[in-house]
Write a structure and sequence with these properties.
three-stranded antiparallel β-sheet, 1 helix, mainly beta, five-stranded antiparallel β-sheet, 12 strands, 2 domains, 43% strand
C-alpha cells in the first residue's frame, strides 16, 4: 500500500526499522504494516491510489494541483525541471514557487474558477 504524510514530516519507528514520511513523497509499505501505521498515527498519513504516470508538462500549460497544506490551486507552468518539479506563479503567495509534479491532479485546457472559465 502506498502512503503519504499529511502536514509535517515525521519518522515512524517499530522494533525492526523505521520510515521517514514527508508530504509529497509516496512510500510503498507492505499492506499489514500500512494498516498498523494508519491506526497508530491517524490523520498523519493517507493512502495514495496508484496514479497514472506523471503528466507530460511544458511551460505555458495550465495545471491544477493539491498540496498537503492548501486547497486545490491552479496556475500556469513557468518551467519544468528534471528533478520531478515544476515552477508556477502561486495564486496565494503571488510569487513563483517550485512544486512536485506528483501534486498535479490534472492539466486543464483553460483557466477556471468556481464560476467557470476565466476571461
Amino acid at each position: 500500500m502506498k502512503l503519504e504524510a499529511i502536514g509535517k514530516p515525521f519518522t515512524y519507528q517499530w522494533p525492526g526499522g523505521q520510515i521517514r514520511f514527508e508530504p509529497g513523497r509516496v512510500i510503498d509499505v507492505p499492506e499489514d504494516r500500512a494498516v498498523r501505521i494508519m491506526a497508530k498515527v491517524p490523520g498523519r498519513v493517507r493512502p495514495v491510489e496508484d496514479a497514472p504516470s506523471a503528466p507530460t508538462l511544458k511551460a505555458g500549460d495550465w495545471v491544477e494541483w493539491l498540496s498537503p497544506a492548501l486547497p486545490t490551486q491552479q496556475g500556469e507552468v513557468l518551467a519544468v525541471y528534471d528533478d520531478g518539479t515544476f515552477e508556477v506563479f502561486h495564486p496565494l503567495s503571488e510569487i513563483p514557487c517550485r512544486l512536485p509534479i506528483s501534486w498535479i491532479t490534472r492539466v486543464v485546457n483553460a483557466r477556471t474558477n468556481s464560476e467557470g472559465p476565466m476571461p
